Amino acid sequence: MRTLLLLICCLVFQMAAAQQAPDSAQSTPERDDNVLPSLLLELTEANFRRMPTLVTEIEQAGGRAVLPLLTVLQDGQLYYQVDTRELVRRQESDGGRVTLTDVFSDNERIDVDNQSLEMVRINNRLRAVLQATIARIKLFEGNDAERAEAASIMLSNLDEDNLVVLNEAIADEQVPSVAAMINVALAMNLLVTDAPQAERLAAVEALNGNLEGPVRNLLRSFLDELGRNEQDLEVRAAMASALASIERKVRFYQLMEQAFYGLSLGSVLLLAAIGLAVTFGVMGVINMAHGEMLMLGAYTTYVVQMLMPEFITYSLWVAIPAAFAVSGLVGMFIQRFVIRYLNGRPLETLLATFGISLILQQAVRTIFSPLNRLVVSPEWMSGSWDINPVLSLTNNRLFILLFSIIVFVILLLILKKTSLGLQVRAVSQNRDMAKAMGIRTDWVDAMTFGLGSGVAGIAGVALSQLTNVGPNLGQDYIIDSFMVVVFGGVGNLWGTLVGAFSLGVANKFMEPMTGAVLAKIITLVFIILFIQIRPKGLFPQKGRAAE
Amino acid sequence: MSQFSKIWGELRQGGNTITLFVIILFFSTLLASLSNMFLPETSVLHVSTYTITLLGKYLCYAMLALAVDVIWGYCGILSLGHGAFFALGGYAMGMYLMRQIGDRGVYGNSDLPDFMVFLNWDTLPWYWYGMDQFWFAMLMVALVPGLLALVFGWLAFRSRVTGVYLSIITQALTYALMLAFFRNEMGFGGNNGLTDFKEIAGFDLSADNTRVSLFVITAIVLAVVFVSSQLIMRSRLGRVLVSIRDSEARARFLGYRTDHFKVWLFVYSAVIAALAGALYVPQVGIINPGEFSPVNSIEIVVWVAVGGRGTLYGAVVGAILVSYAKTRFTSLVPESWIFMLGALFVFVTIFLPKGLAGLLKKRRQRDNADSGGGGIAGLGVSGEAKS
After folding, report:
1. Does A479 contact B335 at a Cβ distance shorter than 8 Å?
2. B-proximal residues of A, 321-340, CB under 8 Å
3. DSSP symbols for A511-538
């Protein structure tokens, strides 16, 4: 009983707060304070058939004040105590830490026992109802972007309730983006009713160029003989032209999206290949264990996250230098103890480093198990940038694209502007002459190898955000990386850049037509043929250094 | 001691290598087969059918290693994609065996292999036509990989793709084929490959006699391939090949069309690999896209490296030894094998660049120097110039 009272108090307080807000005051319907608590109690025992109507009743009874409750329910965080049937919000962080808070306020509830909680279950039908209900409420609450999104959600469900809300909202809507969205909804509704021809033509005009999915579906249905099948020829023609122009726009944005995915794949290839471009391209050493340097980087990310579960957000910033160090040191170790003894015997180097790659893979398999490990993406990496309903770019791909270019520029600067870079280039051009000039070629070799491997480690951190982290991670990229380096031209970082992005984009543009696997095969065959025509790649090294 | 070195000394002399190799192969095959068929199972010397199949498998690997040694040891072409030719030969054989199943499959469809019925296909793809004829299938075993090697080699060697570049694109070739064969749409059974074979040319594949016969046939083919390769390498053609390996530019300036030599040698090697594959499939009873995986191809190279390249017999010995070690270690401690294999790569390349054969040769030379006998100078094949 005590808890019930507490709940009611809580609600009353919330409602009072809601009524104080000027714009929501007049639209909040009259409600009976006794209904809501009993409805909330029913929430803990209702079955899936009852739930949708129950949610609607709660909305009617509680008005906008129930928004927190509904969102918590939608996120699957609504729990109740088995004995008192009191509702609480239960959140579980990535690290497995459970926090219990009050549903309507953010006050932490330490008096509630986690063990005694039962979840309020939801299914897909209920989820749809919740989305619509939340959208209705959010049209008035929240910031402009949220309100515009709420309006766009309502487009796909233009029933009586929603129209009443929309008409009410447009009356004193100040924000253009929200108003535009509501107008689209109203125009869609107008088309469905028996309005005069002129009004309907205006409505079609208003819909022209809109990229929302429901708009397209509605227009298509009007033009479909089995659908609404518009009879008025003039309106029909207008609809056809509107739909055509919308679809042209959609196709354009889809192409943009494909290009983005291509660039994203290109950035991954660039990251994977750029370390190889240093060791293979500049030093002329084939390192078949390069893929395993990527793998080590990815596993370093995993270990760092294991060590600091409370700070997942910052873990990547720790993982990047850590991965560089781990992979770089392993790379230098390989150079000092194996590759150094195989100088000038490229085929043997290839075999020996392949053996090392096997050992590293198996070592990881023994230590971390052959199963894939889960690397958590920090919050700022997840989510996406929604440019319009058709085009949205995921944040992690965007960040990695940016990151790959930063890594490329840094590496380029190291090779062009630092004394280490100068020495590396000197050694790659003429080892004996460089030695005669007093360059410690042994040291330069080790440093170059460490640099190339370290960059691969950094690439592994980025890859851990996109793909599964497992012992085979490196294997999946090694052939692609070699293809990129060979395609772009050995010994040329710019060639690697161009090679990676052009292969990535070409691959993604082929994919819709051929499927992912065939696209990859075609790319491989293309490179095999390309090497026949230009054996030294896109940007061959010129001059005496070439041989 | 001197007895040993005497034998090895003779082994190094051209003609005797062949004789000795064939004799050893002949007797071990005969012994294994006879003890399998005529000794009672309780006897200590009895060789089980399982062992016979295992030996047959090793001989197929030996043939494959021989194929790689022919191009790598004698012509300096390191192919990291020879598993592709092996698997293609195996698939051609597998298709024939698949068609022999007839209506004994799970679905009892006499026109289509099980996996096609499963995929709801109603007709046989055109490239499966004729594969139910033994002679045609055998033709395809040699023809398809041979043609692929011809086209690939012609493209690669004509534009003078050499060294590591060639190695990498051969690896890409087998990788691309692996991806392709994993697709169900290709019509080769996708992920599962071809399996559940019943009989070959009318003989039951699970019968002991068929198994022994397959083993004997494998040994005979290996002997033929070994002899023909040895003859090629000792002919004028072989000398040109070695000169290409040692200095391609010089051979070219002397007027040899080096690319032609390399292309035909590549085709020859691919066909040997394909034969090995075709003999391998009926013995192990399955062929799947995993055979195309780049790791398999690299494993072949390590066989040759361990045995010693440029000797042919070294490749055979290396393949058998390493495969035997693999069988033993994977059954004892499964995880250790990969470590061992990796260490083997590093160890052999750094400490044993000429493989086991090189070790023996060094020994022989030292013994010769000790006894003051007529030591034969020179290394590898070039040492055999006199014969």
Report:
1. no
2. 338
3. HHHH-HHHHHHHHHHHHHHHHHH-TT-S
Token digits of residue B322: 């390493």
Q: Which residues pair with A386 in a beta bridge?
A: A392
CATH of A252-376+399-542, one of 1.10.1740, 3.30.70, 1.10.3470, 2.40.50: 1.10.3470
The verdict on a CB contact (< 8 Å) between A528 and B172 is yes
Read off φ and ψ for residue A229, nearest 5 degrees.
50, 80
Residue B8 maps to a domain = no
Enter the tokens of residue A67.
């928004």
ipTM score assigned to the predicted complex: 0.77
* Residue B43 DSSP label: S
Instruction: Decide if B292 is inside a domain.
Output: yes
Q: Do A351 and B345 count as a contact with CB atoms less than 8 A apart? A: yes
Point out which residues pair with B180 in neighbouring strands. Answer: none
C-alpha span between A428 and A446 (Å, rounded): 13
Q: Could you give the C-alpha distances from B263 to A386, B159, B267, in angstroms and in order?
A: 55, 12, 6
CB contact under 8 Å between B342 and A356, yes or no, is yes
* pLDDT, one tens digit for every residue, chain B (387 residues): 555 565 555 555 555 777 788 888 888 888 888 887 787 777 777 778 888 889 999 999 999 999 999 999 999 899 999 999 999 999 999 999 988 888 888 887 778 888 888 888 888 888 888 888 889 999 999 999 999 999 999 988 887 877 778 888 888 889 889 988 998 888 888 888 898 888 888 888 888 888 889 999 999 999 999 999 998 998 889 999 999 999 898 999 999 999 999 999 999 999 999 999 999 999 999 999 999 988 889 889 989 988 988 888 999 999 999 999 888 888 888 778 888 888 888 888 888 888 888 888 888 888 777 665 443 443 444 433 333
Q: Which candidate, A449, A456, A455, places its Cα nearest to that of A473?
A: A456
> What residues make up the domain containing B60?
53-350
Cβ contact B349–A342 (<8 Å): yes
Q: For chain A, which residues make up each domain, given as ranges?
A: 2-131, 139-231, 252-376+399-542
- Contact residues, chain B to chain A, C-beta under 8 Å: 78, 152, 155-156, 158-161, 163-165, 167-169, 171-173, 175-176, 179-180, 182-183, 294-295, 298, 301-302, 305, 335, 338-339, 341-346, 348-350, 353
Cβ separation B168–A486 shorter than 8 A: yes
CA distance A471 to B346: 20
Give yes or no for a contact between B163 and B73, defined as CB atoms under 8 angstroms apart: no
Domain membership flag for residue B380: no
- Supply φ then ψ for residue A92, to 5 degrees: -120, 125
∠ CA A323-A326-A330, rounded to 5°: 135
Pairing of strands B199-200, A98-101: unpaired
For testing contact with chain A, the best of B68, B346, B351, B352 (most A CBs within 10 A): B346
Report how many domains make up chain B: 1
Alpha helices per DSSP H over B13-113: 14-38, 49-75, 82-101
> Is A476 part of the contact surface with chain B (CB cutoff 8 Å)?
no
Note whether residue B1 is domain-resident.
Answer: no
Question: By C-alpha distance, which of A75, A109, A409 is closest to A270?
Answer: A409
| A362 contacts on B by Cβ (under 8 Å) | 335, 338-339, 342
> CA-nearest residue of chain A to B185?
A518
Nearest to B297 by CA among B320, B270, B279, B329: B270
- In this structure, which amino acid lies at residue A373? R
Q: Rounded to whole angstroms, how far apart are CA atoms A161 and A171?
A: 16
Output the pTM of the full model: 0.75
- Give the residue from chain A lying closest to B186, CA to CA: A518
Indicate yes or no: CB of B169 within 8 angstroms of CB of A528: yes
Please check whether residue B201 is in contact with residue B312, taking contact to mean a CB–CB distance below 8 angstroms: no
Q: B156: distance to nearest CA of chain A, Å?
A: 6
